[in-house]
Amino acid sequence: MPRLRYDLHIHSCLSPCGEEEMTPNNIIGMAQILELDAIAVADHNTAKNLPAVAALGKANGILVIPAIEVTTAEEVHVLSLFPSVEAALEMDKVLYDALPAIMNRPDIFGRQLWMDEEDTVLGETDKLLINATSLSIEKVFAKVRELGGVPIPAHIDKNSYSVIANLGFIPPELEAVTVEVKNPPCAAAEPYRVITDSDAHALEIMAEHDAGELEVPEVTVAAVLNALR
To answer: pTM for the complete prediction?
Structure first.
């Protein structure tokens, strides 16, 4: 079976903490340089750069898993992978409504840019995307699954914005199967399937990360989601 070299947690210039160099074309270009087979661009609480990234990935032989890094009401990050760009954009609408009405300050947090396939800026998101939404972790898991996606507790070994740091444990009622670990090994991850990603906010961070490998029966989004589900 194919073994995919992957990085399923990358931020574009749409995330306020993402460097402006993280354009759709630059991300796909770096993925090619790193010989990655599959990537996921998972911006904070939004999916607006996914149409461009997915189209560029398809044109350049990189499998793009549509994704969003959701911030729950408990300030826990959930890496949410979706079966299609359309499903991710549906979640985008839910998350925008669930964000507080706090506007971004580009002079402090950076611009929140979304682009087309030629890296032309189409717009800027007005609400500050790094804030916590009003959705509980249980509601986030349920909504992602309702849309056919796979919710994954993000970077559980980090001391901030992780389910372990903020809740002290992974609630069993979430029925999580896969967890993300920034720097394995991690004792709390032992009962779960483990993935490791760059969580890159800059091209340099993408380049420094050692790609993970995932065995799948075929090189499709559905096969990757099933392997993690």
So the answer is: 0.97
